[in-house]
Amino acid sequence: MKDRFHFRQAILLFFCLSAWVLAAQSPQKMSYQSVIRDADDKLVAEQLVGIRISLLQGSPGGTEVYAETHSISTNANGLATLQIGSGNVVSGAMDEINWGDGPFYIRTSTDPDGGTDYTITGTSELLSVPYALYAANGGVEGPQGPQGIAGPQGPKGDTGETGDRGPEGVKGDKGDKGEKGDKGDIGLQGPMGVPGPSGGENQQVIFNDNDEGDGDPEFLFDKTSNHIAVGATSINPSAALEIKSVSGALLLPRMTTQQRNAIDGSEGMLIYNTDIQKFQGFVGDSGTITIAMSEVSAATYFVGDDGVNIDYVAQTFTPFFQGLLQTFEFNVSSLSPGFQLTVELYEGDTPGIGFYMNGQVVNVNSLGWITVNYPPTFLLHEGTTYHFILKPAVVSGNFIGVLRSNGDPIGEHDGGTLFSFNSATGTFNPSLLDDLDFRVKALVNNQGWVNLH
Questions:
Q1: How many CA atoms lie within 13 A of 18 on its CB side?
Q2: Contact indicator for 402, 333 with CB cutoff of 8 Å
Q3: Average pLDDT for residues 44-69, to the nearest whole number?
Q4: Which of 15, 36, 19 shows the shortest CA–CA distance to 28?
Q5: Residue 409 preceded by cis peptide, ω within 30
């Protein structure tokens, strides 16, 4: 087609001409059919289309001797059927065409959207003129032309009604059942085939790489030690699993607390808990573990009693395991050697109020982590809040500095808060975002998940 629009397309399937002589007079009509398709080559089925028919004399660009327009609907197969001579006449007259003065060409212009915006044009030669039309202009019938190419098969017609069932024939006699033959002997086993070639080299893991199986020089397995190396060219005898990479990291399983608790945990498992954004490990049946902690060394709080001002702190905590208290540790940043500090333990979430459990006087003589030991008699319960109070044991001009967080970064212990004592009011003031640098360790006798940082 010579005037092809970018979003529509029509394909002419066949062109049929017919004419009849009725009462010695020829109807001035010709039958025409076309299959309409869009730009994606899909049928324009059961849709109104606009078609302009032009008859050209002499050549594909010759004089237009007749033109008419049609607005018709396609069928379920996209087929448009019309009669040339029965449309809305634009120019000329069918009965004034001298069919003997040919050749003649037919040009079709189509608007698949049903209007008059004809975007698809095709021109074909009118190879034969119906005899009745030719004779109407005084022409002489020519010899019969060769048979044309068969048109496409039409749609399948409706299935006819089922006929009456004929009479049932007489049932024949059942034949005799033949005897079953004896089972044949099992044949001899054939010889084993020659082993195929082994892919890769020793210790290299073979896998399918785009339908090609071969060994990877940096994916190794030692069957003797069951050690694996990824990204390395040799097995490390001390590493059960080695991942050698400068472009990626080891990614542990990531899950919520609910998903973690659905796992049948085994000692030594590691995960990343997305609810609290911490790495966690599954501990064994028994042993001393850290059950509460914060290690954000960002600021210093000074503890002392000079007879006028008394300054001291309290730290609440909530164990995430039940166990017998073993030690309480705090971090010292500055001191006067021999400083005496009283460490008191209470059950309750409000410092100074609650059930008193124990008190000890500690001599602080060094910087860093100071450990307070306890006999295994104080059972700390999971989910219960406790607090330690650190205050000077004697009145002196000396002070001790203990480390703490300062809001940025905040403290690490989700179930605790740092409090400072206000000597003017005799009450404790909370620092809700802060924690003392502290560790609480207990002897536990059950399995469970613990924070690793």
A1: 7
A2: yes
A3: 92
A4: 19
A5: yes
The Cα angle at residue 316 between residues 314 and 317, in degrees rounded to 5: 145
Helices (H), 165-256: none
Q: Sheet of 270-273: strands edge to edge?
A: 254-255, 270-273, 278-283, 448-451
For tokens 């080559």, the residue is 41
Query: What is the DSSP secondary structure assignment for residue 95, as one 8-state letter?
Result: G
In the structure encoding, which two tokens stand for residue 20, read together? 């009849």
Contacts of 165 (CB under 8 A, 6+ apart): none
Task: Specify the amino acid at residue 134.
Answer: Y
Give the DSSP H or E segment for 239.
Answer: none
pLDDT band for position 450 (50/70/90)?
A: confident
- Residue 38's nearest CA partner among 49, 22, 51, 53 is 49
- Strand (E) or helix (H) holding 387: strand 386-392
CA dihedral 85, 90, 93, 97 (to 10 degrees): -90
Ranges 32-46, 192-206, 306-320, most confident = 306-320
**pLDDT per residue as tens digits for the range 337-368:** 899 999 999 999 999 889 999 999 999 999 99
* Paired tokens of 280: 């966690």
Contact present, 84 and 126 (Cβ < 8 Å):
no
158-184 pLDDT, tens digit per residue, is: 777 877 887 877 776 776 766 777 887
**pTM of the full predicted structure?**
0.41
Q: Label the pairing between strands 254-255 and 270-273.
A: parallel
Are the C-beta atoms of 387 and 316 separated by less than 8 Å?
Answer: yes
Which domains occur in the chain, in start order? Answer: 3-136 (2.60.40.10), 207-243 (no CATH), 254-283 (no CATH), 287-451 (2.60.120.680)
Q: Where are the beta strands (DSSP E) in 26-181?
A: 30-38, 48-57, 63-73, 79-84, 88-92, 104-111, 120-126
Greatest C-alpha distance within the chain: 141
For 181, counting Cβ atoms within 10 Å of its Cβ (0-12 exposed, 13-18 middle, 19+ buried), the class is: exposed
Q: Rounded to an integer, what distance in angstroms lies between the CA atom of residue 174 and that of residue 183? A: 26
CB 314 within 8 A of CB 419: yes
> By CB neighbour count within 10 A (0-12 exposed, 13-18 middle, 19+ buried), where does 14 fall?
middle
